[in-house]
Amino acid sequence: MRCLPCSGSSSVSPLQRAHSTPLSLAQLALITTSDGAVDDGALRTAAFYGGVAAEARLLAWPRLLGVYPAGASTAECAAVLAAKTAEYGAAVARSQVLQGSEGDDAWRNQATVIGHDVNRTEASHAAHAELKPRFSELLLAYAALDGPPDAAGGPGYGQGMSDLLSVLLFGLPADTPAALVFACFAAMMGGPHAGVQPGELRHFYTAGTVETAMVSCLGRLLETLRVCVPKLHAHISSVEQAQQMLFCYRWVLLLLKREFAYGEVPRLWEACWGSKGATGRDDFVLFVAAAILQKAEKPLRKQNGFDVMLKFCNELSGSMEVDEAIAAAERLARRQTEAEAKAAAAAAKAGGGAADGGAAGSVAAPVAAWGEGSDEAAVVDVEVPTPHPSPKRISTADSEPVVAP
């Protein structure tokens, strides 16, 4: 763990101070109609700025993750849960068949990996022993949802999924229906509220290579640094093999679970689930990652190789408290949105001028980039990451490294 100095500015935005109390059941009731429909915008704003109290998670989390449609009544939610229960039962049955005579070597290998991961993931948690059978059943069912992975790395289980599921499984009440936990997990993996682009999280685990899965996502992180932390962006761009940002690969794959205390992770994810309504951005995890990098900017700019950058970033765990990180990420998100709006306005103005003056071609609009601690705004070109030339082993688990191209 690296201890980094606090930035000079306040770490909490005015809006966050106004909504700093976790959403309780009583507060949730205030935004719920007589037929059980919850105001989706109010829920997401409350989750983003204050989180959700443990007592309200059973009602709030399925709505935040999109298991229940926005504005669904109690009766409509019950119908959805009935359908999800049938789907879960079918997935469990399929996993049991695959564990029997119909299973092939790929499935048996996947089941073995799941067993190993369940044993090690949050093994010290008070509920681990009690919920271990359900933990295994959920992951086996998810792996069987679309069948075992094919030779090209198709759908199924990917190492690291156990880390993600553990937050949901241990964060929800122990008596939560398994089908609802499963639906929340499936929605996070494939839905629009995970903190990255819709469906992107599942793709990270099922794509054939890290390059195909991560290049677009981490490219957006690099773009945020270009816009908001230009000096750090310039340094990363100058370091061989660093432009693909694979030293942040584990962060995104595990949605920053290892970078914060375990008890803070639900608060972080709730902010990600509510970020679209609060900031207009649906990839808030990347802004949190950028905020961590921004706070570590000075020492990070002294790292002059991919391997040392990877080691340095792996040691940043615990360098920020979760509310500080959310507030800093919100500032970065709003700055990038403002910069993009200015760029779009400049492009529109340039296009209109060309049309009025009869000039041929189009004019590219530069984006002003700035960050806290930067001396001045900078205008820099977009740089496209180049493929990583050699394999790197980036660990997502204590004993099971993942090979990243």
CATH hierarchy class name of the largest domain: Mainly Alpha
Strand content: under 5%
Query: How many helical elements?
Result: 18
User: Compute the gyration radius: what is it?
Assistant: 22 Å
Count of individual domains: 3
Give the termini distance in whole angstroms.
26 Å
Q: SSE order, as H and E?
A: HHHHHHHHHHHHHHHHHHEEEE
**Overall average residue pLDDT:** 82
Rough outline = globular
Overall helicity: 55-70%
Give the full name of the CATH homologous superfamily of the largest domain: Ypt/Rab-GAP domain of gyp1p, domain 3
- Spans of at least 5 consecutive residues whose pLDDT stays below 50 are 1-18, 150-154, 354-395, 397-405
- Derived from helix and strand composition plus strand pairing, the structural class reads mainly alpha
Give the strand order of the largest sheet, numbering strands 1, 2, ... along the chain: 1-2
User: What is the tally of beta strands?
Assistant: 4
What is the fold-level CATH name, i.e. the topology of the largest domain? Cyclin A, domain 1
Can you tell me the CATH architecture of the largest domain?
A: Orthogonal Bundle
The largest sheet is:
2 strands, antiparallel
